[in-house]
Amino acid sequence: SPWKQSSSQRIYYIDASFLKQVSTKIHLKGGIAGEFYNLRLDSDRYIAQPQSGDEALFNFSLFSNHFHRTPRYIAGFGEVRLDYPFIRVQLGSRVDYFTASTLGLNRPLQDSTYVRNRQPGKYMFSPRISLSVPFSDHHQVMLNYGRFVQIAPMFYFYAGSGTSAENAPLWPLYGNVDLNPLFSESSEISYVYSVSDATSLSLTGFWRTYSDIIDTRNQAFHGQGGSAQTTPTLYQNQASSRARGIELEANYAASAKTQFRLTYTYMQATGTTNKPEDRYFQFVSQGVMPALLERPLNWDQRHSFILESHITPARNFYAAIVWRLYSSRKWLNTTLTEQQFKKIPWRNFLDLKLNYRLHSKYFTFLPFFEVRNVFNIHTQEDEERFFLIDNQPLRPFEDRLGRRFRLGIQIN
Questions:
Q1: Distances in Å between the alpha carbon of 282 and those of 52, 81, 333, 343, 384?
Q2: Residue ranges per domain, the chain?
Q3: How far is it, in rounded angstroms, from Cα 377 to Cα 269?
Q4: What integer best gives the mean pLDDT of the chain?
Q5: CA 251 → CA 110, 258, 302, distances in Å?
Q6: Nearest CA among 30, 18, 10 for reference residue 75
């Protein structure tokens, strides 16, 4: 068989927080959060890869992934809120710790085997600040700044695990257990106008930067005897992007049980890569790793409209309806042999969620039923490729793939 694959993913969550009101003007908040993964993937797939300099000739290479890993992610956070008549301030910070919890690829020796060393965990510090200045009962200005971290999809840490030197692909691409978390900074300034007790309007300008985005790079090392060698291509943190735009929001409370929110967003997004493998594909087809150049990205979504309604028809029953409309946008698809420019038409999605609240002496239970993409809208934002990495496993479901049902329970 040209493709055999089986995978399993279990994630255990922990989330605990506390609130403390020191006085009428000082409020404290803190807590911890954690995610513990149990990942297993066994796959073998033969990939058609073009021979260097000749796009008409292909070699079939075996890409293998055989690993069982238990990465973990733990965070602690604290926040203080100060409420005064002339200003409201929120100061907070968060410390995140992540470890791939594995023996990972370090560097190749002359015989193409791999040295495996345990990788240390990574600590990340993220400060956040928010200021709100009310000029009157109807007008206020808000300033927000924050730094955030996000763990990359797990596949990028372990891709290629279990591949032997004898069966290495023609153009190997391996994971990197030493990847940094994705890092972002966000700055916002907002003006809020309260028309009445039931209606408010706001205008927000935002600027966001993203760094340590995953890309690919050829890493040079020295083998035995000092001779220069080049590793297979590895995933690395060297891409970046930025987004800026404006957002208009209107809130209306029709009654105590029914609220509506309408949001319009105009955004521009530029960066150096759309997908981690884009430069790798160009390297395979051209023989040279291309430079990092900033350009409009595939998620450069200029116009977005979102209408939300929240309804509480009964005391313990809750319903949410969300309608999303997105303007057309262009996207660039990089394959092993070419770059293709396409255009996505206007898209609209409808989401529904139902909650019911159950009380006990110590806990509150919130069973829920959710339908995402009720209209079952499919959009093509990528061409199918020969390559396993294109539709890699252990990745969250995407709305563009169709309708999704979720049934669960939340315990507070």
A1: 11, 50, 11, 21, 16
A2: 3-411
A3: 24
A4: 81
A5: 65, 11, 22
A6: 30
Asked whether the beta carbons of 83 and 74 are under 8 A apart, the reply is no
Q: Can you give the pTM of this predicted structure?
A: 0.76
Tell me the pLDDT band of 144, cut-offs 50, 70 and 90. Answer: very high
| Residue 111 identity (one-letter amino acid) | D
Cα separations (Å) of 228 from 78, 221, 280, 290? Answer: 49, 6, 21, 21
Sign of CA dihedral 273, 274, 280, 281: negative
Rounded to whole angstroms, how far apart are CA atoms 2 and 46? 5
- Domain 3-411 belongs to what architecture? Beta Barrel (2.40)
Q: Are 268 and 302 in contact (CB under 8 A)?
A: yes
Nearest to 45 by CA among 392, 287, 401: 392
- pLDDT, tens digit, for every residue of 170-220? 677 888 888 888 999 999 999 999 999 899 999 999 999 999 999 988 765
Q: How far apart are CA 351 and CA 372, in angstroms?
A: 5
- Beta-strand runs (E) in 175-272: 182-194, 199-217, 220-222, 228-230, 233-255, 258-271
Contact 171/58 with Cβ under 8 angstroms?
no
Structure tokens at 54: 């000749």
8 A C-beta contact, residue 377 and residue 359: no
Whether 303 and 266 have beta carbons less than 8 Å apart is answered as yes
pLDDT at 295 over 60: yes
Residue-wise pLDDT tens digits, 337-364? 667 778 888 889 999 999 998 888 788 8
Task: Give the angle 9-11-17 at the CA atoms, nearest 5°.
Answer: 170
Whose tokens are 């990788």? That residue is 119
CB 131 within 8 A of CB 187: no
The pLDDT tens digits of the residues spanning 297-337 come to: 888 889 999 999 999 988 889 999 999 999 998 877 776 66
> How confident is the model at residue 107, as a pLDDT?
41
Read off the pLDDT of residues 397-411 as tens digits, 9 standing for 90 and up. 566 678 888 888 887
Element (H, E) at 157: helix 155-158
Query: Given the DSSP bridges, would you call strands 87-99 and 72-84 parallel, antiparallel or unpaired?
Result: antiparallel
pLDDT, tens only, 18-45: 999 999 899 999 999 999 999 888 887 7
